[in-house]
Write a structure and sequence with these properties.
Layout: E1 5-8, E2 11-12, E3 15-16, E4 19-22, H1 26-34, E5 43-47, E6 53-58, E7 64-69, E8 75-79, E9 88-93, E10 96-101, H2 108-121, E11 129-132
Antiparallel strand pairs: 1-4, 1-5, 2-3, 5-6, 6-7, 7-8, 8-11, 9-10
Helix pairs in contact: 1-2
Length: about 140
């Protein structure tokens, strides 16, 4: 495993009781992702070295948003091109409700595949579809 830490948000009222687990295993990462519910658990971040990390958010109704960066400047988002470009879905990520393009809201299986590949090799899974996340450019 190349991942150095696992961060799990747990919102109680308006306070984040974040848990950081050093040198996490795949089982811990998978469990944390499967516990995302879009209510109190809305974001999991797996980090490697040099500002490299993947964030998985949401979880309500089996929908997740997966983003990754290797430099904290350019971000990539996992997409499902079978969903329409112009449709928007609401998800709670990081404790806040937001509007996300439907193609950015993926099911659990591709989410887990993306996370496992990233955790084991610090790469984006080439079998999945990724786009540059323009909403985070210049932030």
């Amino acid at each position: 495993m190349f991942v150095l830490d696992l961060s799990v948000e747990n919102w109680i009222d308006n306070f984040n009781q974040e848990e950081v687990i050093e040198t996490s295993s795949w089982n811990q990462i998978e469990t944390a992702i499967k516990e995302l519910n879009g209510k109190n658990k809305t974001l999991v971040t797996i980090g490697a070295e040099n500002q490299t990390y993947m964030s998985i958010g949401g979880g309500a109704e089996g929908r997740y948003v997966v983003t990754a960066t290797f430099d904290n400047l350019d971000f990539h988002v996992l997409v499902n091109f079978l969903k329409p470009d112009n449709k928007v879905e609401k998800l709670v990520v990081g404790g806040q409700e937001g509007n996300y393009l439907a193609k950015m809201c993926v099911d659990l299986l591709p989410c887990l595949l993306a996370a496992r590949t990233f955790a084991e090799s610090v790469k984006l899974d080439s079998l999945l579809s990724w786009e540059e996340d323009k909403s985070l450019v210049g932030v």
